[in-house]
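Colleagues,

For the teaching module next term, I've prepared a clean inverse folding example: a structure given as tokens, and then the sequence designed for it. I'd like students to try predicting residues themselves before seeing the answer, so please don't circulate the second half yet.
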């Protein structure tokens, strides 16, 4: 407020206030100005990268103007805001999205053409912002798009990693990891060097009495690291709302400590401190669905939670409201348990710093938080060792113990004759060392807990969190099935399909009300429409074939059936099932006569995805896929009948090319293991069919599009436990088809069999935890049905069109509205022109 210009002097400001370009010519003017001044270049040395920067800067100007206005509007109306805390935001590229969301892509295309550039070449200069591992991080990015599009006053809070997810290279069939340094000349972030928070670690807790004789705790000494805010504007589609994503970067605190060292001539150690501090936000942990309990990761979590909460509390305090109103002004959503310390931190702020009583504070805390769980896999559930927390965050550990004490006391009252339940639900696991169970803390500190698809949410209630359902009742637990943003995953990734749909539906309204897609069903028999639909798919397949040629050197026939599985490599996602199926197909082709081969439906099996660097089995799967590819693709008996492709470094911008080009995609996790899956939605939205198990959102996709439009196979979640039990205590029988495949592998058909022995042994000898053998037969025969269906082009087209028409449910707009109604209790802020 102190920096505000007094009213009599505001006239000049208003006169020169920045304005947005509104035409091709104005875009060109802004572009050239940025090339010549901001970038200090000219028409003599403007390459495509410079053209990208010039275009990005011109659009950035537009975003900033609306972003500032949005923030002013939100501050002025002062209604409840949502804060989405996520350690991952897998944003991908920003320029194309900004162009489409502000509705000026055509102007930019024409303008760039006038100036000597093709817009596609300019767009592809941008480096992906890859601050995430997979589905969880991409979901957060889709949420931001929908929050802005729906005009919700919402902020994302995350970490500004210097290195995002590593870049994957395949060398001799092995995955290699290359650091992804992505920050050089990134025009989409704004450093806010004036917005900093000091974050404390280590030290100890002192108890003393205040002037009223009340016992108070203070957390003293230790180390201090500074959090600096970097802001990223998030434009909504077709709205003026431009929300903020605030990412924290760590650096050494500029406190006296450093200066003392400098003054004492200890320059090297002062620099070392600096580097130490910067380590906190240096790198994204590359694990998906796995937690490894590293101290630096806990430091990241607290650093980010503490900075974000300080910021949120600071904003709330400016309104001068009573603390009891905090939950009416603030909703905080925890993306998985990674931000669970925010619960403890808010309680600490309220009792230790603001002087509230425990119960009053705790009431505020639980009304504020909601927690989203994304997995039931035990290895992904976060637990932190008590000694680690004790050392790093001594006051927080005390508060966790107090939360647990009060919780267990209430459980004991509720279930006086049940001793076992106390041990089962305690936040502290009585192991050696003791562990803090973060999911339990998140449940106890939130008013709502949700899973991400119906089956997943049901499993949470009946297995992992069953005791908590008994304690709190079923109402604390709910389901919000995931979605994807149709702006990026239909309109941006598949412009031709988006425009064909718009032509039929009379406009692009479906992009903001995806249920309007259902009108497409009336055109399913329209011949011309079908032809155009098929042509777009062919065109998209050509585009992917080109990418495959450029990146792998292999030529694929775009007439073939494109069969795609792209996602993180994980045993539960079962890429091994897929590659075993491919080997099975290869062996069959090898046995065939020339006559028989004529009947084979040509297929390209396309894989992509990263393995966590320390996940040996996942890396073995990648190795096998690549070895199979080099054998199959060079076998002249096979030719175009089968090609195997591994696309290296699968990321968001590659997904935008791959999703529109699939005929069929694979979502084949062991039933009950995939939270939701979201690429399944992207593929179907782009007219691809899917082969999948009854898992995650596949089940709801089937319900929406009809079971005649999806290829389901395999055992059901309810039978998994029994099957696993039988593997160990019955006699395990390897499926005969799979036995053939293993024999080929063991005969060194794909190189040294020893390289793959762990993979085959996990199935034959170690209990086949993921039921690969149990599902193999059903998988292979279902693929035969896929072949048959694909040959019937007209039927296939009808399935494709009908499916897209019925995908309206899977927009993140629907998802965000559900969160807003049932968890956050927030309203959109209407924007007047
Ligand atoms: N997911 Br836990 C991740 O991508 N990473 C994780 O560490 C965890 C979950 C995914 C789920 O595996 C996927 O099923 C879900 O669709 C996605 O989160 C978003 O909810």
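(Answer key — instructors only)
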């Amino acid at each position: 407020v102190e920096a505000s210009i007094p009213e009599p002097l505001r006239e000049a400001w208003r006169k020169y206030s920045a304005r947005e370009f509104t035409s091709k010519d104005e875009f060109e003017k802004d572009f050239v100005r940025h090339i010549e001044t901001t970038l200090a270049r000219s028409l003599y040395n403007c390459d495509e990268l410079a053209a990208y920067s010039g275009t990005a800067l011109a659009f950035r100007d537009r975003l900033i103007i609306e972003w500032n206005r949005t923030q002013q509007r939100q501050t002025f109306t002062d209604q409840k805001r949502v804060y989405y805390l996520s350690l991952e935001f897998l944003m991908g590229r920003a320029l194309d999205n900004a162009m489409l969301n502000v509705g000026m892509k055509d102007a930019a295309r024409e303008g760039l053409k006038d100036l000597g550039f093709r817009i596609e070449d300019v767009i592809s200069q941008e480096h992906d912002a890859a601050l995430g591992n997979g589905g969880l991080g991409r979901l957060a990015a889709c949420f931001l798009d929908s929050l802005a599009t729906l005009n919700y006053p919402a902020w994302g809070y995350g970490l500004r990693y210097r290195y995002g997810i590593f870049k994957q290279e395949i060398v001799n069939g092995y995955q290699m990891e290359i650091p992804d340094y992505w920050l050089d000349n990134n025009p989409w972030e704004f450093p806010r060097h004036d917005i900093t928070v000091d974050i404390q670690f280590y030290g100890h807790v002192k108890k003393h009495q205040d002037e009223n004789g009340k016992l108070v705790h203070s957390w003293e000494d230790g180390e201090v690291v500074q959090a600096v805010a970097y802001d990223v504007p998030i434009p909504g589609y077709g709205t003026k709302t431009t929300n903020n994503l605030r990412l924290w970067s760590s650096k050494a605190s500029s406190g006296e400590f450093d200066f003392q060292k400098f003054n004492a001539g200890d320059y090297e150690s002062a620099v070392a401190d600096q580097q130490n501090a910067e380590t906190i936000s240096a790198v994204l942990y590359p694990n998906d669905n796995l937690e490894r309990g590293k101290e630096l990761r806990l430091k990241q979590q607290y650093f980010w939670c503490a900075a974000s909460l300080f910021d949120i509390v600071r904003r709330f305090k400016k309104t001068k409201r009573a603390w009891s109103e905090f939950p009416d002004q603030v909703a905080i959503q925890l993306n998985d348990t990674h931000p669970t310390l925010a619960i403890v931190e808010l309680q600490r702020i309220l009792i230790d710093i603001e002087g509230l009583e425990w119960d009053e504070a705790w009431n505020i805390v639980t009304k504020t938080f909601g927690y989203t769980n994304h997995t039931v896999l035990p290895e992904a559930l976060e637990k932190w060792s008590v000694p680690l927390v004790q050392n790093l965050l001594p006051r927080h550990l005390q508060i966790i113990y107090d939360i647990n004490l009060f919780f267990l006391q209430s459980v004991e009252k509720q279930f006086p004759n049940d001793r076992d339940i106390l041990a089962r639900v305690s936040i502290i696991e009585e192991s050696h060392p003791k562990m803090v169970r973060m999911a339990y803390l998140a449940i106890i500190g939130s008013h709502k807990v949700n899973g991400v698809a119906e089956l997943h949410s049901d499993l949470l209630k009946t297995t992992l969190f069953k005791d908590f359902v008994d304690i709190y009742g079923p109402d604390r637990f709910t389901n919000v099935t995931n979605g994807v943003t149709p702006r990026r995953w239909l309109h941006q990734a598949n412009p031709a399909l988006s425009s064909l749909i718009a032509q039929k539906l009379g406009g692009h309204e479906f992009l903001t009300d995806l249920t309007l897609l259902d009108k497409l069903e009336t055109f399913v028999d329209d011949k011309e429409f079908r032809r155009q639909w098929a042509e777009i798919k062919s065109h998209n397949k050509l585009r992917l074939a080109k990418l495959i040629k450029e990146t792998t050197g292999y030529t694929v026939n775009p007439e073939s059936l494109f069969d795609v599985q792209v996602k993180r490599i994980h045993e539960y996602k079962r890429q091994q099932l897929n590659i075993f199926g491919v080997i099975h197909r290869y062996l069959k082709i090898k046995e065939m006569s020339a006559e028989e081969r004529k009947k084979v439906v040509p297929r390209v099996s396309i894989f992509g995805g990263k393995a966590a660097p320390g996940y040996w089995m996942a890396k073995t799967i990648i190795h096998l896929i690549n070895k199979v590819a080099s054998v199959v693709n060079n076998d002249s008996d096979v030719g175009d009948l089968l090609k195997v492709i591994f696309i290296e470094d699968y990321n968001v911008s590659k997904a935008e090319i791959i999703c529109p080009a699939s005929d069929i995609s694979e979502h084949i996790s062991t039933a009950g293991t995939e939270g939701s899956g979201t690429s399944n939605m992207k593929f179907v939205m782009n007219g691809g069919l899917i082969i999948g198990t009854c898992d995650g959102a596949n089940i709801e996709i089937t319900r929406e599009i009809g079971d005649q439009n999806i290829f389901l196979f395999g055992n059901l979640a309810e039978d998994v436990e029994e099957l696993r039990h039988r593997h160990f205590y019955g006699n395990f029988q390897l499926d005969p088809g799979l036995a053939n495949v293993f024999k080929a592998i063991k005969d060194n058909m794909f190189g040294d069999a020893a390289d793959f022995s762990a993979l085959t042994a996990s199935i034959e000898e170690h209990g086949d935890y993921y039921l690969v053998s149990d599902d193999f037969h059903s998988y292979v025969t279902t693929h035969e049905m896929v072949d048959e269906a694909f040959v019937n082009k007209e039927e296939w087209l009808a399935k494709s069109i009908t499916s897209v028409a019925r995908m309206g449910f899977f927009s993140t707009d629907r998802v965000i509205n559900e969160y807003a109604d049932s968890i956050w209790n927030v309203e959109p802020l209407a924007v007047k022109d």
